[in-house]
Amino acid sequence: MQHFNEQLPLPFLKLDKDGTIILYSTLAMEHFDLSEDHIKHIVDNESYEKLLRYSSNDKAPVVRMELNMKSRTSPVTLYEVYLTWDNELHASMILLPKDQSNMQLIEKMMSLQKRLAETDFELYEQREELEQILSRLHELSGPFIPLTDKMCLIPLFGDVTEEKINVISHSCLQSVFAGEYEDVLIDFTAVGNVEDKGIEQFVRLLKTLHVMTGKIIKIIGIKPHTAKTLNKYALEGFMEFNQSLKQVLQTHFTK
User: Fold this and answer.
1) Number of domains in the chain
2) Boundaries of domain holding 236
3) Residue 73 falls within a domain, yes or no?
4) I need a labelling partner for 13 at 20 to 30 A (CA). Which of 37, 82, 106, 253 fits?
5) What is the CATH number for 7?
6) C-alpha separations of 240 from 40, 157, 212 in Å
7) What is the pTM of this model?
8) DSSP string covering 111-128, please?
């Protein structure tokens, strides 16, 4: 019987055709008492008979079976055994403790589930935080500024997107309603790109403000191509274009 010096992750045995152990790994020696140098001394009777039924005539390149074996720690331990035969009728056996295998799989699965749960929760928290930051940025991109008791200004900054107008609409409509404002000025001077969905949402805001105030909404500093887009929505009676905030205020205070 010869010791196999290579480090293997699982117990390994090699048997001759009579069941004598001719080669063993370090882990095999740690798992089993190999002093009798025969496989029958480390396998219970029923499992030994089961093992004998597999011979070199078996056509399967690798045979997988479960055997009850006598380990150093327990008189009966279930092992998952992978068996192959070579041309010299020698059987190579790799042995995996079944209970240990299951426990390792369960532990790995539980560990993975825990990590996934933690990752999901962290991603959820980060997404919530990001959404709050974006919402706040959108609010700051369209602040509500009271000018007089009845007049207010909503300057828009950056690109006009659906998400941004949604956020701005919520805060501005609340402020207009609570303050009973009548004259609403919306300044487009600092606006960048205008998205189609953004302009559609803006039109809804315009119409809602018109219904709430009963007055025409004054649009300031709008670029020609954006004005052309708004005109497609037939908003006569809902809004009017003005060149600058100064012009609107001068007209208002000279009435």
Assistant:
1) 2
2) 139-253
3) yes
4) 106
5) 3.30.450.20
6) 99, 20, 17
7) 0.49
8) HHHHHHHHHHHHHHHHHH
